Amino acid sequence: MDKVETLVIGAGVVGLAIGAELSQSQNVLVIEQNTHFGEHTSSRNSEVIHAGIYYPKNSLKASLCVQGKAHLYKHCQAFHVPVKPIGKVLIAQNHDEAEKLEAIRLQALNNGVDDLVWLSKQSQPNYAPDLNLCAALYSPSTGIIDSHQLMCSFITQIQQNQSLYVANTRFVKAVPDENGFVVYLSCNGEEMQLHCKNLINTAGLFAQDIAHHIEGINHALIPELRYCRGQYFTYQGKHPFKHLIYPVPEQHGLGIHATLDMANQLKFGPDTEFIDSLNYQTDATQKAKFVSAIKRYWPYLDETKLHCDYAGIRPKLTLSGQQDFVIQTELQHGITGLVNLFGIESPGLTASMAIAKHVKNAMQT
Ligand SMILES: Cc1cc2nc3c(=O)[nH]c(=O)nc-3n(C[C@H](O)[C@H](O)[C@H](O)COP(=O)(O)OP(=O)(O)OC[C@H]3O[C@@H](n4cnc5c(N)ncnc54)[C@H](O)[C@@H]3O)c2cc1C
């Protein structure tokens, strides 16, 4: 039977970041069920490098986002991954919202994000032209990134470190033995087995399903999975924005905000909708909702230029309230060598490299 020290299940940005990190000191195999890496959440997001503003103090999201942001900017420079630290403007449209922004500023400070600045009345039109607003905060360390190139750079690292990434290889089940796990795989439709000492489950929207196929796991420790779709509408035309524009956040997401991609295309979203199954179908009937949310802060929106584009799905663990990343090691589930990652929603792209270092440290303790 083939042997590998560590098997990573899932080649999204998090699995690949973990593969790149671990391959510096051990022999790693990253497997992906699809023909291409990153076809699920890692290619269906906003591609924003988040500053780490909103998350509760001492949460994994807060610490790993702030650390991950710093690692990413450095990594992008070293590996020539396209990135633009274009900053974002958080806008308030009335006094109540301005108070919420102040609470957000203090939360950010708690998380170590100390670079948020209030924009003066004079500078507001420069940073946030044509917008209805009464107050605005600017976050200079927020940026955008080419997530596909980022994933390519992780694969390059994995290969340079003599480890492997293979596509068309699906995890079927794992059975623990005295030295690790016997893992059953389906490679291009053919069944095979291999042995690994460590098993990292970073399968995103499939992580719960994978966990249910690891023998000996306590099923009560596997959190429920709730699909929460976020849909985007693209604006096909000229626009006045140089920075990302975010209204005050909502309960399950950041509100219908405006982001730019590396080609300066403007898009709005994602919205939030809980759905019953894994379905990336977009729903053009949501346009009226988008138009009304956008016009609240950008009254000049030409709605004929707004087109339904794509959707991503957040791996939520609950239908309400805040949730943190869940990273379970032997300490939680009692199985040596197994790491399960659940609920890696936003800011998982920003945090990917910090999650990788966190997993590496957790495996050593
Ligand atoms: C709408 C939306 C917007 C977002 N915006 C941002 C943002 O702007 N900034 C940010 O930081 N984060 C953002 N995120 C979060 C970020 O995209 C995710 O946290 C990140 O992409 C998760 O990566 P992953 O590797 O955990 O999961 P995935 O990308 O889903 O990868 C998991 C992989 O596992 C594979 N897999 C599953 N089952 C098996 C199996 N049996 N065998 C082998 N392989 C398997 C899948 O095919 C998949 O490729 C956003 C998320 C959403 C939904």
From TrEMBL:
InterPro entries per the UniProt record, alphabetical: FAD-dep_OxRdtase, FAD/NAD-bd_sf
Essential cofactor(s): FAD
Keyword Oxidoreductase belongs to the record: yes
GO molecular function, one term: (S)-2-hydroxyglutarate dehydrogenase activity
Positions of the FAD dependent oxidoreductase domain: 7-359
Family, per entry: Belongs to the L2HGDH family.
Name this polypeptide is given: FAD-dependent oxidoreductase
